[in-house]
Amino acid sequence: MAGERTSGTAAPGGQPRSGSSALRDGSPRVRLDQPMSRRRSWFALPTYDRDVFGRMSERIARFLGTGRFIAWMTVVIVAWLVWNTTAPESLRFDGYPFIFLTLVLSLQASYAAPLILLAQNRQADRDRVNLEQDRARNNRSIADTEYLTREIAALRMGLGEVATRDYLRSELQALLRELQEQQGGTDGRTRGAAEPDR
What we know:
- The chain has 4 helices and 2 strands.
- The chain has a two-stranded antiparallel ribbon with strand order 1-2.
- Helix 1 (50-64) packs across helix 3.
- By secondary structure, the protein is an all-alpha fold.
């Protein structure tokens, strides 16, 4: 039967060995627990370092957002228009509708937009990482604050059971009064006991 699994070598008992990778008809067995390998294309696509390309696009996008770029672009466009309107007919390369200028500006815009979007995506990734780090730092700060709050509450409860200076002073004054009363009572008794001896 086509479609039955065979391994070429069977384990004792006629059962196929585990790890068989081909079917009886010779087609490779599809593994569902592993990702598929990439299909080979007829031509190889160029490879590039995404990080280097991303940094380059950020530099370009940063330059496109400066006043220097706008000033240079304005100078080039004005020079283009002046040359193609005032120069002799034989030296003009782009006539009145300025179609070539429109094409150049469209080409510049078609490259600038994806580079700016790529730079924005990289910035959004950095912002997301910074936000996650800030959130983790805030969670640690909250946990530390809660811990310190619990410790301060425990100290206050512990201090509530500790004798204060005023409490000790009042207790000592009460003891001193008791001693004075006892001494006053014993002095009166000793005087009364000493008088009959006379």
